[in-house]
Amino acid sequence: MTRVLDLFIAALMPVLKVLLITAVGTLLATDRVDILGADARKHVNNVTFYVFNPAMVGSNLAKYITFRSMVKLWFMPLNILITFIVGSALGWLVIKITRASNDLRGLVVGCCAAGNLGNLPFIIVPAICKERGSPFGDAETCRAQGLAYVSLSMAVGSIFMWTYTYNMMRIYSINVSKNEGTQPTGETLQNPSIPHGGLLLPLKQSSSPVDENITNRIEIGSDQKAERQGRVLDNIKQGLQIVGTKLKLRGLFAPSTIGLVQFLNNAKHGLQIVKRKLNLGRVFAPSTIGALVGFIIGIVPPFRKVLIGDSAPLHVVEDTANFLGEAAIPTVTLIIGANLLKGLKKSAVQHTVVIGIVIVRYLVLPILGVFIVKIAVRLGLVHSDPLYQFVLLLQYSLPPAMNIATMTQLFGIGQTECSVILLWTYALASIAMTLWTAFFMWLVG
């Protein structure tokens, strides 16, 4: 009985920390205090997105990930992909059972498929390592390994978020626009190139002339960049055509040259289609780029010797990145509380839809996750580290990613309903995650 109580307390403490910081963020966003208003959240989001998150992910991966550890962690990307696929299938069932309206279908699938693989594991895992009832051994070793695991989880989750979930919601939004006979609103944020990853939240849309001018300059800049890339390929193609003509006059290799010109032309159109469909600018968000840099530094021995460790010549770079990264978690959690305030003021959503999403994320997915991870352990796909298994299980019990709110803004569908869904799912997360975290620790310990 004492052991169970210790596990419960160890699971409860990190969740309480999240709740307290979230409550502070909500208070700061109220009209009376108005410190984290819409404009303030926008600027803090940008700083977190471009500076704090990449520094946190990159520094932790560089410090704790090596080539040997990457070989051991290969199952984690597959596990995260399974959570997305199974979650989206369950979301489709929720749509069928609740008969959700067309404009909510993409939102339901997104909330069921994508969990918050960003800041919540970064808070929960290190906090559990410090608790007395933790089954993961020495606190410092546990924290170091845990940060490596959750950093990889955040990086992989960001990639799947902006490839799999984004395109699923985009397909549903296109179907809604076709049924209603309207054009999709497209990307309507102030800066459509910012992917506002799992740690970032919806920004308030503004119709002021200043914001419209900023949007126009960004769109013009993107168009000019695409035109420059197209002109480069066109110049290469024209040059090869001239060379091909001259060679043809001489009877030398003309078919090969013409084929190369056709290949470049097809490659140009193919790359444009891939870039437009997959939104590569979002896939390679700053956090993802930070993760790639961290992987390279951690895996390549010369880079690691120069940058990582107190005796490294350039260890000040690592120290600076760590210092910046430490600001990410409290800052993002404050913004979560500030943005959830919108859900308190809205109620335009079917209760059955909210209940269905809650059941999927806090009941069905965790149960399936236990079976999947246990089968993987039995088959030898996952090594015996209890902390690693705990992180894999935790990925099935997280609330919906805050990214979903940003995607509803991008497509102009379900923004109000999203605020309500996020409010209730995050409010209930305090209970669900405490219980599941305690159970997972008992299971692996």
Automatic annotation (TrEMBL):
TM regions (residue ranges): 7-29, 73-95, 107-128, 148-166, 283-303, 323-341, 353-375, 387-408, 420-444
Subcellular compartments: Endoplasmic reticulum membrane
Organism (species): Turnera subulata
The protein's role, per its UniProt record: Involved in cellular auxin homeostasis by regulating auxin metabolism. Regulates intracellular auxin accumulation at the endoplasmic reticulum and thus auxin availability for nuclear auxin signaling.
A biological-process GO annotation: auxin-activated signaling pathway
Family classification: Belongs to the auxin efflux carrier (TC 2.A.69.2) family.
Highest rank taxon of the organism: Eukaryota
Protein name: Auxin efflux carrier
Membrane topology: Multi-pass membrane protein
Keyword 4Fe-4S attributed: no
Keyword match Membrane: yes
InterPro entries hit by this protein: Mem_transp_PIN-like (IPR004776), PILS1/3/4/5/7 (IPR045033)
Principal location listed in the UniProt entry: endoplasmic reticulum
GO cellular component terms attached to this protein's record: endoplasmic reticulum membrane
Pfam family of the protein (one): Mem_trans
Keywords: Auxin signaling pathway, Endoplasmic reticulum, Membrane, Transmembrane, Transmembrane helix, Transport
